[in-house]
Amino acid sequence: MKDFKKQKWAPWALSGLILVVLIAIWTIATLPEEAAVNVDPEYAALVGQAASTGSKTPLPTPGDVGEKLWGHISDPFYDRGTNDKGIGIQLGYSIFRVLVGFGLAALVAIPLGFVIGMSPLLYKALDPFIQILKPVSPLAWMPLALYTIQDSDTSAIFVIFICSIWPMLVNTAFGVAGVRRDWLNVAKTLEVSSLRTAFQVILPAAAPTIMTGMRISVGIAWLVIVAAEMLVGGTGIGYFVWNEWNNLSIANIISAILFIGLIGMLLDTLLARMAKLVSYKE
Predict the structure, then answer these.
(1) Pick from 59, 79, 106: which residue ends a domain?
(2) What is the pLDDT of residues 159-204, one digit of tens each?
(3) In the list 7, 90, 146, 237, which could disulfide-bond 94, CB 3.0-4.6 Å?
């Protein structure tokens, strides 16, 4: 029992040690140091005061970032105008856009992938179109979306939709096409209807692969929303990062990066737990 507990907590202890080492390196790297070099005034104005004082790096210290993080956590939902909203509000807008775009993509990709996977002819016919559209950067769709939709929020949701649909579509088709023929033959022998076969045989068998596609899609969606919001502006964590860059607040940018990573990890963990519920062992 003791050995089990030691093994259970060992990864957490190692992670904590790595975090301490990284913070120590960060602290040492950002210690101020007077340097006898001339700093370009334009560069100093761009990156902030750290460069003008001759420090090793213009990056803020862990203490500076910790102070900003505490400020964001202590009052995450304040609203003082267009360019001054709490981190909670900004993350809320981004999460809402991701969930809407991701949900719409799931509504389209899973049924369509199901149909493609059950029809080898349709699979081969649509595969060239999927392979051409799949590698297109989602941000390449943004100008077209802004021109046709003429609404920044809807355009951002469309970008999430278009980047989320392909992993789910491909994985669903692959999972459905890979269902064991023995199971389908048994269903035919028992004269099970096509609809019942789809829901009670094919869907449970393909569910783990479908969930894998959903995990990939939500990761891509959360990755893309930051860049999309930088382009469309207004609200969202991407706009927050861009706005803080314009304000030369590197500490706030690093704080936002940490929040982006935490939310991405939570979304992936949620779908990973859902994937375990539909997994099966032979």
Answers:
(1) 59
(2) 999 999 999 999 999 988 887 777 777 777 776 777 777 777 778 8
(3) 237
206 and 137: one domain?
Answer: yes
Contact 168, 214 (CB under 8 A): yes
48-71 per-position pLDDT tens digit: 544 444 445 567 888 888 888 898
Query: Residue 175's closest CA among 145, 200, 210, 148?
Result: 210
Establish if 6 belongs to a structural domain.
Answer: yes
Count, residues in the chain: 282
Q: How many angstroms separate the first and last alpha carbons of the chain?
A: 29
CA distance 265 to 258: 11
- Is residue 102, in this structure, part of any structural domain at all? yes
> Could you say which DSSP state residue 90 is in?
H
Q: Is 143 exposed, middle or buried (0-12, 13-18, 19+ CB in 10 A)?
A: exposed
